[in-house]
Structure formats: C-alpha cells, structure tokens
Amino acid sequence: MASYDTIPSTAKTQPTPFKVNIPQEKLHQLEQLVKLSPIGPGTYENLFEDRKLGVSRSWLESAKKEWESFDWRSHEAHINSFPHFTLPVTDDDGRKHSVHFVALFSTNPSAAPVAFFHGWPGSFLEFLPILSLLKSQYAPDQLPFHVIVPSLSGYTFSGRPPKDKDWTMQDEARIMHKFMCELGFEKGYVTQGGDIGSFIARIMGAENEACKAVHLNFSPMQKPDSASDSDINELEAFALKRGAEFQRTGFAYAMEHGTRPATIGLVLSSSPIALLAWIGEKFLTWTDADPPVSAILESISLYWLTDSFPTSIWSYRQHYGPNPIPGGVHGNAKFRLNKPFGYSFFPYELMAMPKAWVQTNGDLVFWRQHERGGHFAAMEKPDELLKDVTDFVTQVWK
C-alpha cells in the first residue's frame, strides 16, 4: 500500500528515516532551568501590555508558569506523525552537510516537487498545519505534489554551518539545490518561502534552471524608481505604513543578530526564559492574532532542545552586517526571477510589498491579496497559503 514516505524511484541517494526523540535528560534539564530561572523586576517599560516597548512581564510570567508543566512528549508525538528524514549532501569543496526534512511524497507520476522554506524564528513546525491539510485531502496516490520541508542549516535537526567559513545565503541556496537534486528532482522543482526562506527560495530560482518557479509570501525591497503611489491600493498602503513602523521601532533585534551574533548567541543560550522573551515577542508582534501560548512554547522548546539559536542567525550578517547585499536579495537585479513567480500578500506581514513593487524584480504571473494574516503565514493561514501555492503550481507546472 502506498504511503507518504515512499521515496521517489529517481532519488540519487536514499534518505534515512528520522524520528524526533529528545533525550529525557535534556527535557529534565529544561524543566529545571525553567523553574529556577528568575524573571526580572517590574519596570515602567515592562508593565505595558501593548508591547510597544517589548514583551510584558505579566505575559512572560504567565508563559513561564505554563512552560513549567509543558508536555513535550505529546508535541513530539504529533511531530512524529509526519515522515521525517535526513539526507547527506556533499558541497563543491567536499564538505558533507546533513539536511533534515519533513515530507509527504506522492506516488502520482505527475506530482510536482515543491520545497517549502522556513525562516527565523521559525522552523519546519510552521508547515505542519499545511501537511495536515494535505493528508486530510489526498491519499498518497492522489497527492498533486511532493511536499518537502527542509530545516535550514543550523536549525533544529539539520547540520550546523561550518565553523571555519562565513556561511552565506548563496551557500545555503547551493546546498538546498543539491539536496533537491539528490532527492531526484534535478529535472525540475518549485520553491516556496517566507522570511529567510524567501531569500533562499529566490536565490535558488535565480541561479538554477532546475528551479522552474518560485512562490513567496515575503519580498521586502525599496520602492522602485518606476513605481507610482497611484498604483497602490488601500490595503497595500496600510501594510506599507505598518512596515515603516516596524523599521522604525522593531528592527533592533536584526541589528543585534547581524552585528553582534556572538554575543546574543551566547546570551540566549544561557537561559530558556531569556530565549522565551526574545522569541516570544516575535510570535506576538509579528502575527495578525496572538498564537496559542502552547504553540509558542513548542517552537521555543525545539530551539532550546536542539541548541539552535546561536547557529540559526547566520543570515542576518548579509542584511545588517558590515557588508550587506546591495538592495537586499529581493531588490537586487542579480536575483531577478526570469521565470514564473508568484506572491501572496498578507497585510500584517512585517513588510508586505505592493504588487507594483514586487513585479519589478520578476516575471510575476500570480498575485493574491488577503485581508488578514501576518508574518507566519503557513502557521496563521494554512488554508489560504496552501490554496495559493496549489493554484500557482497548477498554473505554472508543465
């Protein structure tokens, strides 16, 4: 009987099945650290509940209390209800990279391979709601896509970036392209991404013929010279105003990641409550509506239990470090997408871009504007994002 873990016969290398199983000792250590970690005293700034000055002390206190009795094993069981694998990839210099990924493989010969890429502070967890929808809608022989969700280097169960090399987004895109080819999709695949995943998805599309199309839900860029304010609708204007406010008041974390990654990496590896405050703030302020605390704790627990924070922020140097990419990835002509390109607009995204801007750096053949939804679209609006990707791939895949 066909199943979602049936590897395509074209795979060059057979991936190894993987099961998430955090050692009990590590869980016990986290439980003790959460209980023993203090929360700072109340101040003028942290008594505000509107988060304009950062996460509130009361929210952190409440989340800490829930974390003290958090049942990781039940979340782990749900995570393991999807097929997981690891696959070794050899880089051009002979280095070995291990890529962890979640997948639903189709046994339909005409299925299109689609790779979904997460960002920071996300992980493969963001896409599990979409995988659940697909499992409920399609049997393996009816699934129209091979759905592949890799963990980027330095995140959760993938290998770490090398310690003797300044790892870049171009390096990561090269590894992910090789990864897709090793899975047997060197003749063609589609990429989808948000946040840092959008940069990887775009670079793969710009640099590899095998990447036939790219769908994004994040594409921050400066206003193009050719764009006119008259081309912007009311919802786009709202989003631009929200993005400008984020750049004015919410950018400090990115500057810290890009310019002092060593310091913040060591700081947030010293206390799970510090990590909860740093990442919890993003889940609360970057979304349309507050996610359940349990979902936030699941993500932060995964970061802590896999020691991922200090190894996950390498990409920020190319945006906010001493030598940023001119114009950013999405605004740089080097990464123009001269192939089918789709974009989903969610108005509560950190920097949701107008259609008139996005279409200047690619062959934009699909655009859909949504009334709600924020930065973590796959988690917040899985039905909407899945429909967009389905409609886009159906339109462009030949």
Automatic annotation (TrEMBL):
Mark the transmembrane ranges: none
The Epoxide hydrolase N-terminal domain extends over 16-127
Q: Specify whether Hydrolase is a keyword of the entry.
A: yes
Where does the source fall among the domains of life? Answer: Eukaryota
Keyword line:
Hydrolase
Q: List the InterPro entries.
A: AB_hydrolase_fold (IPR029058), Epox_hydrolase-like (IPR000639), Epoxide_hydro_N (IPR010497), Epoxide_hydrolase (IPR016292)
Q: Which family does it belong to?
A: Belongs to the peptidase S33 family.
- Protein name in UniProt: Alpha/Beta hydrolase protein
Recorded source organism is: Phyllosticta capitalensis
